[in-house]
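pasting for ref
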Amino acid sequence: MNNIRSLNRRAKSASERLAELYQVANASPSPAPELLPTALKELGIVSEALQLALQELAHQSEQRVAVQGELEQERRRYQDLVELIPDGYILTDAAGVIRQANQVMITLVNTQSQYLLGQSLVSLVIPEDVSLFQAKLNQLQQFKGLNGTTSSDRIEFSVRLQRRPNQVFNALLCLSLTRPVEQSQTFYQWLIRDITERKRAEAALDNPTYNPTRDRPLYQFTKGETISFEPQTVWLVVDGVVKLTTMSERGEEVIMGLLGDGMVFGATLTALHTYQAIALSTVKLALIPISEVAQSPQLAQALLSSLKQRLQQTESLLAIYGQIRVEERLNSFLELLKQVMGQPVEQGIRLRARLTHQDFASACCTTRVTVTRLLGKLQEQGKISLDDQNHLVLRH
């Protein structure tokens, strides 16, 4: 920049000298012989100055392009870091208008970027919590007035935010104020985390009649449908019967469990590589995150009781496999079914889900033909029967 100023001064001086020479030439009827060489010399000085100025401008233009490239790289690096934040991130101006949001935040409120940017953050807060939101914002502004414009001032509080289309979730907001040194405008940085599961766990501690399925959405599966396993969660059977199976080395299905109301299953509860859950009837399930179990002693205690049932059932299945006679294995398996899915009826105990003869064969370590023969024999003896829906009824 100093070189440009120097060249400008030299060019201005040469221009003034040329103006003087032009006036001298016009004032004399016959210009002096030395006037032309002098004028050419002055023009050469101006030309040299302009050449140097152009070179300096070209150099500064290259530097500006390089700086702009570096700034763009830094902007992209900053954007990548924002996207890596595990919580929702929002940058708002002093009026609370959202200027930036990462993908986690966009997912939290179930919207799109173009609908979120430019919107006021307070519009996401449910009306009942707006006063609390404004009070906390005023609190941070008071910190700013007392301590200046430091970026270390931050507060945390929880409010309920709206999630499209018509849902509400509990959110923990971590708010900090920032003002870049080179700018006079104030910005607010927000970290937003969904704490709905944590709030539910805390509420459970104060509830004497705890129900682990309370306030949870229920998922329904029809008979024969395969139930998918969700990562870091367990399924809780609310109603119906679920069959757990694996595959033997010979490609045969092996029953690992039959789950009734109040029992849990999931990928985190098994070490088997091939593991499948199938609905034996219309089934209603609740999905419970493992993280919530760690935060709620009551939920952990409720699931411990379910795991105890699973362990006892597994021991019963192992005991059935160890019996020598097929008839004994079948009778023991029928007794197990009475416990898992039995419904008292006038004729005896009705199994509310239907198992195939192949299911019986798998559980009893025998063939389907043998099971068909033995069940027919029990039916002839009047120990079992079928109702009008082909459900097995065990006589008293």
